[in-house]
Automatic annotation (TrEMBL):
ATP binds at K93. It comes from Homalodisca liturata. It catalyses: L-threonyl-[protein] + ATP = O-phospho-L-threonyl-[protein] + ADP + H(+); L-seryl-[protein] + ATP = O-phospho-L-seryl-[protein] + ADP + H(+). Keywords: ATP-binding, Kinase, Nucleotide-binding, Serine/threonine-protein kinase, Transferase. InterPro entries: Kinase-like_dom_sf, Prot_kinase_dom, Protein_kinase_ATP_BS, Ser-Thr/Tyr_kinase_cat_dom, Ser/Thr_kinase_AS, Ser/Thr_Kinases-Pseudokinases. GO terms for biological process: response to stress. PROSITE patterns: PROTEIN_KINASE_ATP (PS00107), PROTEIN_KINASE_DOM (PS50011), PROTEIN_KINASE_ST (PS00108). Residues 1-45 are annotated as: Disordered. Belongs to the protein kinase superfamily. This is Protein kinase domain-containing protein. One of its GO terms (molecular function) is protein serine/threonine kinase activity. It holds the Pfam family PK_Tyr_Ser-Thr. Signal peptide: none annotated. The lineage of its organism: Eukaryota, Metazoa, Ecdysozoa, Arthropoda, Hexapoda. Residues 67-335 form the Protein kinase domain.
Length: 358
């Protein structure tokens, strides 16, 4: 495997308009449902489920037949997203039952729904209910009416000025800080799961890794299917846990609040640079380098030291050295306006950008 020089990790040197971005990838990764760390008052014992939760869960149980299904508007790790109607426009996320083949996984789904129903935040998609009767399991949320950050950045090539970039990052930090305070780990924070509605950030698809068995046998080859850009969001401790041939009994991936912060660092980088880190590189060198603690060099990023420090902090090799979202929000709020260097022709300018890395 040929590798390329990267900066070694130096933590002291210190990122539905009507449509959901299509994840044509079905990432085969397994995640322990216990990673969704909840407070003691929110922990639900599976054995006590009927006694403790059956009544409250019925309030959120939506009969599948009440949903008016529209056209599919996206495919994700967990299944397919449909435009629909249930007392108004909604997004209906139908879970792939290939990943719900045992009682343990179904219980994990119910536990996640029990947590989702407690979420209420302006930067988090509104949970409206769930279809709880197999074989038709689904999660119903409000319909996001803007575009994803992925669409803005990677498809439309929109250039955000520094003030807007900082505003978006602050709102993501607010929403993620709220989820973490509720004991919810996102596990799949990326620009495809962040919508922008008239300048307002809406975070979607949090916690769903817990209820899906994302390890599967490809029709052509048993192996790890890696979607474009996905590796760039994974913290070193996650990268080191990946296996080329994931098996159902393999150790679960160690997602945590700190791994969410690492993923935010990549989102911050995308907002600044208009592309993923390690642009154009195949998976193998990215896995090898990130697993060892290497980071995307920032020499060509014409930004203030404060802006770069946020990246380096979020991308710290040790999870314990990454800031939480409360600290990140305070740091972002202190950023002076218009500190990012610009060229006359582009709001955000990178000299040769990340393509000069290798």
């Amino acid at each position: 495997l040929q590798t390329h020089p990267l900066e070694r990790s130096q933590d002291s040197d210190r990122t539905v308009s009507g449509s959901v971005s299509t994840d044509s990838d079905h990432t085969p990764v397994r995640v322990d449902s216990q990673d969704s760390q909840v407070s003691d008052s929110e922990i639900v014992d599976n054995r006590a489920w009927p006694r403790q939760n059956s009544l409250s869960m019925r309030e959120w149980d939506i009969p599948f037949d009440e949903l008016k299904m529209g056209e599919p508007i996206g495919t994700g790790h967990f299944g397919t997203v449909y435009r629909g109607n249930w007392h108004g426009d909604v997004a209906i996320k139908v879970l792939n039952m290939n990943y719900m083949d045992d009682d343990k996984t179904f219980e994990a789904f119910k536990l996640e729904v029990a947590i989702f129903r407690k979420t209420r935040h302006e930067n988090v998609v509104l949970f409206m209910g769930a279809c709880m009767k197999p074989p038709r399991l689904a999660i119903v949320t409000s319909m996001c009416k803007g575009m994803t950050l992925y669409t803005h950045i990677h498809l439309c090539k929109d250039k955000f000025n520094m003030n807007k970039t900082t505003s978006v990052a602050q709102q993501i930090s607010q929403g993620m800080g709220y989820l973490h305070a509720r004991g919810i780990i996102h596990k799949d924070l990326k620009t495809k799961n962040i919508f922008l509605e008239n300048g307002k950030v809406i975070i979607t698809d949090f916690g769903l890794f817990s209820v899906t068995k994302l390890c599967f046998a490809n029709r052509k080859v048993d192996g790890l299917s890696i979607p474009k850009g996905w590796l760039c969001y994974l913290a070193p401790e996650i990268i080191r846990s990946l296996r080329a041939h994931q098996k159902p009994d393999d150790e679960e991936l160690p997602f945590s609040k700190s791994s969410d912060v690492y993923a935010f660092g990549t989102v911050w980088y995308e907002l600044l640079c208009g592309e993923w880190p390690f642009k154009g590189q195949p998976p193998e060198p990215i896995i090898w380098q990130v697993g060892k603690g290497a980071k995307q060099p920032l020499a060509n990023l014409q930004a203030s030291r404060d802006v770069k420090d946020i990246l380096m902090l979020c991308w710290s090799y040790q999870p314990s050295e990454r800031p939480d979202f409360i600290r990140l929000l305070k740091t972002l709020e202190k950023l002076p306006k218009k500190r990012l260097a610009r060229s006359p022709s582009h709001p955000i300018h990178l000299s040769r950008s990340a393509e000069s890395v290798f």
